[in-house]
Design goal:
The protein is an alpha/beta fold. The protein has three domains: 81 residues, Winged helix-like DNA-binding domain superfamily/Winged helix DNA-binding domain (Arc Repressor Mutant, subunit A); 100 residues, D-Maltodextrin-Binding Protein, domain 2 (3-Layer(aba) Sandwich), CATH 3.40.190.10; 150 residues, Periplasmic binding protein-like II (D-Maltodextrin-Binding Protein, domain 2, 3-Layer(aba) Sandwich), CATH 3.40.190.10. Helices cover 41% and strands 19% of the residues. Strand 1 and strand 2 form a beta hairpin.
Length: 377
């Protein structure tokens, strides 16, 4: 019996809370995984797992053995990484998950750069606004927006999420422009609801350094970033999108910022991974690369020059905003970014119009609120 493999299999079964998911992740038959765990329990002469038809749970002995296995496997991986030839690149399959808008507008356009740098890493990218369970779904790391609430996770901050309150000119023409937060009582919003809880996400504003939540009435609720932008562009109500998504429309006049004196609360963007896993070379490589591409864009890096700066998240070349200016280059890159972003959202706007006409958009009824920021769930 290979005890090292048995430890690996046992840890994976516990992390995935499933023999089947562990077998899929390890590329082993399920029967093999089951046999390995049974033989391991015989070798140790203890029961490690309580098994029912619906769930697995660790016994006290299993919990103690799991913690030791995690430390041992981490030490082995760290020792191997310390002595491996420096010219050897990170390798293997890396499963990540990211909000759809960040994946489509920021990560995907730069993937060629990542592949050239790390050709031996096979990326498996999940994109959506549904929160994933890293352990249950065998995901190595995720990009998430907001403060980390799960103490079993580690977060490395790579950027800042800055929202903006805005509306289409036709909405402002019909309903007027709010001048104060109190004016919002007379306005409608496009609502964004959590895919996990179904709850509508309240708006927030920074007022004298304090975060103030505002409940908005609305006529449409969606749980997709592109649909949210499309509803705003069509004048369904005020929206609070990420500034990096709204920028092309602010520049060409199809959206206008409102209430500029009261900004939504900025939130960290982080790469998150379980604390009980050793940070593998491939996870470290992805995290460093993600931090690099986010750092190129002032709209995502939290820099104070972000308000009027452009970022070419939708092009291969990143625009570096420096003190010298480089006006011509900046204009060229900004034009590419705006054109690409508008093209991305054009299809979404058309789909949204058809959905509204056919009644396939969720109408806003009595839905509980949530404290999660829009487009960050």
């Amino acid at each position: 019996m290979d005890r090292f493999q048995a430890m690996q299999v046992f840890v994976r079964v516990v992390d995935a809370n499933s023999f089947t998911r562990a077998a899929d992740h390890l590329a082993l038959p399920r029967t093999t995984v089951t046999t390995i765990i049974q033989n391991l329990e015989k070798l140790l002469n203890v029961r490690l797992l309580n098994r029912t038809t619906r769930r697995l749970s660790l016994t006290p002995d299993g919990a103690a053995y799991y913690e030791r296995c995690v430390r041992i496997l981490g030490d082995v991986e760290e020792a191997e990484a310390a002595f491996v030839d420096a010219s050897r690149r990170p390798r293997g399959k890396l499963r990540i998950d990211t909000p759809a808008a960040i994946g489509r507008l920021i990560l995907i356009p730069s993937l060629c750069e990542f592949h050239e740098r790390y050709p031996d890493i096979e990326l498996v990218i999940g994109m959506g606004d549904r929160p994933v369970d890293l352990v249950q779904e065998a995901v190595d790391c995720v990009i998430r927006v907001g403060e980390l609430k799960d103490s079993s996770m580690v977060a490395r901050r790579i950027g800042m999420f800055e929202g903006i309150t805005c509306a289409a000119p036709n909405y402002i023409e019909s309903h007027g422009e709010p001048q104060t937060l109190e004016d919002l009582a007379d306005h409608a919003a496009v609502h964004y609801f959590s895919s996990r809880t179904g709850r509508v996400i309240d708006w927030d504003f920074m007022v004298d350094g304090e975060n103030v939540e505002v409940k908005m009435r609305g006529v449409v609720s969606v749980n997709d970033a592109d649909a949210y932008m499309a509803c705003g562009l069509q004048g369904f109500g005020l929206i609070q999108p990420p500034r990096y998504m709204a920028l092309p429309y602010l520049q060409n006049g199809t959206l206008k910022e409102v209430l500029p004196a009261w900004k939504p609360k900025p939130m960290p963007i982080s790469v998150v991974y379980p604390h009980n896993r050793h940070l593998s070379p491939k996870v470290r490589a992805f995290t460093d690369w993600a931090a690099e591409i986010f750092g190129r864009c002032p709209l995502l890096s939290g820099r104070t020059d972000a308000v009027d700066s452009e970022c070419t998240w939708a092009g291969q070349d990143a625009l570096h905003v420096d003190a010298a200016g480089n006006t011509a280059e900046r204009a060229t890159h900004a034009a590419r970014a705006a054109q690409a972003a508008r093209a991305l959202h054009a299809a979404g706007a058309a789909q949204m119009a058809r959905a509204v006409q056919t009644g396939r958009v969720v109408r806003d009824d009595v839905t509980p609120s949530s404290t999660t920021a829009p487009l960050a769930s």
